[in-house]
UniProtKB/TrEMBL annotation:
InterPro entries in the record: TAP42/TAP46-like_sf, TAP46-like
Organism: Rotaria magnacalcarata
Keywords associated with the record: Coiled coil
Name of this protein: Immunoglobulin-binding protein 1
GO MF entries: protein phosphatase 2A binding
Coiled coil: 149-206
Lineage: Eukaryota, Metazoa, Spiralia, Gnathifera, Rotifera
Amino acid sequence: MTSNDELTISELFDFSYDLQQKLETNKIEQKLETFNTAIERLKLAEDKLDELHLFSDNEEINEVASNELRYFILYALIGWLYEYRSSNREQRLDDIHLSMSYLIKYLQLCKNYGLVKQVPIENDDDDKEKFRLHATQDRQAKIQKIKEKKALEQSITKLREMMQDSNRVDDETKRRLYLEQIRWWIKQAEDDIFELKDEIKLLQFAKNPMPPINNSAAATNKLPIDGPFTLVTTKDRLYKEAVGGAGYPSVPTMTVQEFYDDLARRQAQQPVPPSK
């Protein structure tokens, strides 16, 4: 039986990429062991890539061979696996930081090759305004980004179908597929990084919640997230709601602070039950 250390970069990457795709589309059960296996093999592939110095800061994207170009998204895949791996609250914070670290590493690699202009910083809240496509942004800008991502998905699907036909597979087709995947993961990584930043703040707030709020304190107590938010949502639901529905239900209607202020006011108006 071949050990993981004896597997080639291609074997490690292809096996893990296939697992990630099945996990993302719910084609296999979301088991912790499956996530860990994919992460372990991708990290081995990462070590082998580092040993070969496959990517350089001193070359252009058109200088990278097509067969090597597909490994570009390796960091993004590891980041995704950490982001969606099921874990308890204590481990969740560690997984978030690991996910952000790999997603930022991916964007930095893309920046080195001129594919993105700027890379967010994990511990810098100020860069939110530069990178984040949030609900407070112009509605048309948000819809436009979703349409661009959808167009990339359609292009990737078409190119994958062409790759399955041995008579239509050539270097140009492979290269187009890998570049489209890189562009899709750039958009995904940028969005995920700032969602994870918000989740960090919510987890930290859950550990140290505010003291009981009264009417006078409601105006001064600040919560960890500024700006509009959606209380209960998923990425799939956000995606579907953003592109359909006249009411555009994915746009939040109040900030976190406004929500808690309103909650405090309603609680203050409730009658105090008589003492027994």
